[in-house]
Amino acid sequence: MGIQSFKFLADDLPGFKVHGSQIKIIQEPKQFYMELLDRSLASKNRIVMSALYLGTEEKEKMLVEAVGESLERNNNLRVKILLDWCRGTREVEGESSASILAQLKSKACDRCRISLYHTPYLRGFWKKCLPSKWNETVGLQHCKVYVFDDSLIISGANLSRDYFSARQDRYVVIEDCPGLADYYEGLVDTISTFSLGLDREEGFGIEQQFGSHPYQGQLSEFVEESSGLVRTFLEDQKLKNKVDLEDFDTVVFPTVQMGQLNITQDSEITSKILTSGEPGGMFHFATGYFNLTDQYMEDMITKSQSEFSLLMAHPQANGFLGARGLAGGVPHAYTLIAQTFWNLVLSNNQQQRIKMFEYQREGWTFHAKGLWYSSSPSMSLSSLPCLTMVGSPNYGYRSVYKDLETQVTILTTNCGLQEQLREEQNLLYKQGKEVNSITYQQEERRVPLWVKMVVGLTRKFF
C-alpha cells in the first residue's frame, strides 16, 4: 500500500519526475536567506519570485541589489516578481515593497516584470473605506515560490527579515527540474496578466492584452476572464506533463487554489489525500494558523482511517503576538478555534487517533505548514514519510476561499529523501508539546469574551 494509495495524483495533476537526490530540505531561516541571495547572484537566465510581500529592511534590500547586479551583468537574464498589491504597497517608514522594487525597472525595464495582484473583491465602497492592513482581509496573493534558472525553492515563507531569522517555516529546494521551473514561471506569468504592473515611477497599470480591471468595471467579467486564463494554463500543463507511477523514484505534483476565481484544484487534492491514507498510516500535519475548514475537519475526524498528529503555533509562537489593537486578539482567537476542534475530537471519541501539539520555541514564531504521510509499518518495509505537501496554504478558510495559493505534493520511494523528510518533521515536532485535558483550562489560555464574540462572527474570514 502506501504509495499505491495516492496514485490518483498522476491522473488528476501534471507531474514532474526527479531523483530524490535533486531535492534538499532546508531547516533554518538563515539558510533560506543565503540560498535566495546566492542563487540571485548566480542565475544566468531567469529569476522568478512570488511572495505576499518584500520587506523594507537591510536584508531585503541586499537581496534586491543581488537581483539587480545579475540583471546588469547578464543580458539574457529575465526577472519576474509577483507580490500582493495591498501588502506590497503598505508603507513602513515611508517605504514599501513597490518602492524598493521600482529600482529594478530602471536597470533593465524590458527584462524586468514586477506585478502586484489586486483582489477583484476590493472595490467600490470597501476600496475607499478600508484602511491599510484591513484591506488585506478581503483577499491576497499568497503563493510563495522562488525560481532560479531551472531550480526552485517552494516554501511558505515571505521575503522579509522575520522569515530570514526567527520565524520557522518550511523550505524545499528542487534542483535542475526545467519542467517544474517552467510551470511556475508560467503560473506567475498567468497571474501577472491580470495583475497591476509596476513601472519605474512606482505607477501601476493593467496589462494591455487583458480586457478587464481588478477593481473597475464588472466583477463578474474580471472573474470570468482571469479564471479562464488560469484554467487554460492548468489544463495545458496537465496534458503536457502527464506521468505514470509504474516505475519512479520521486514525482512532484504542483497544485493551485484561487477560491475567489473559482479555482479549487488544491483543496480538492488535499481532501483526497487526507482521506486516502490506509489504517495505521500516519499524517503529521502542520499549520501556523490553525483554522481548518469544515471539509478538512470532516476528512480527518470522520472520513480518514489514518492517524493524525497536528502541530500548530502556541500563542507565544503566533506571528500576531503583541500586535496592537484588534490584531492583538488573534493568538486568543486561534486558541479558541483549536479548543473547539479538540472538543470535537473528544466528542467523537477520536483522541487516540488524532493528537494535537503546540509549537513553542523561545524567541521564535511558527509559520510552517504542510503534511507528511508515513505508511503503517505493517503495510510497508519502512514507516518513513513517502509523501509530503509543502507550500503556501494554511488549510484554513482564507487559503481555500480567499487567497491565491500553491503547493507541491512530493511522492517518493527514495530512502535518502524519506530520511530528510523524517528529520525535518522530527525537528519541528521536537518543539511541540502535546495538548491534553488541562491545556485549555489554564488561566493564561482563557479567551476574552470579546474575542469569542468576534470569532463567532468572523471565523470564516481568516
How would you concisely characterize the structure shown here?
This protein has 462 residues and is an alpha+beta fold. The protein has helices at 8-12, 29-42, 58-73, 85-88, 97-107, 124-129, 161-165, 178-193, 219-240, 265-274, 294-303, 330-347, 397-402, 415-429, 449-458; strands at residues 16-18, 23-26, 46-50, 78-84, 112-117, 145-148, 151-155, 167-168, 171-174, 196-198, 204-206, 250-258, 282-287, 307-313, 354-359, 365-366, 370-374, 385-391, 404-412, 432-434. It is globular and about 60 Å long.
Description:
This protein is α+β, with helices and mostly antiparallel strands and 462 residues long. It is 36% helix and 22% strand.
Task: Map the helices and strands.
Elements (H helix, E strand, L loop, with lengths): L7 H5 L3 E3 L4 E4 L2 H14 L3 E5 L7 H16 L4 E7 H4 L8 H11 L4 E6 L6 H6 L15 E4 L2 E5 L5 H5 L1 E2 L2 E4 L3 H16 L2 E3 L5 E3 L12 H22 L9 E9 L6 H10 L7 E6 L6 H10 L3 E7 L16 H18 L6 E6 L5 E2 L3 E5 L10 E7 L5 H6 L1 E9 L2 H15 L2 E3 L14 H10 L4
Parallel strand pairs: 3-4, 4-5, 8-16, 13-14, 14-15
Antiparallel strand pairs: 1-12, 2-9, 3-6, 5-10, 6-7, 7-9, 10-11, 12-19, 13-17, 15-20, 17-18, 18-19
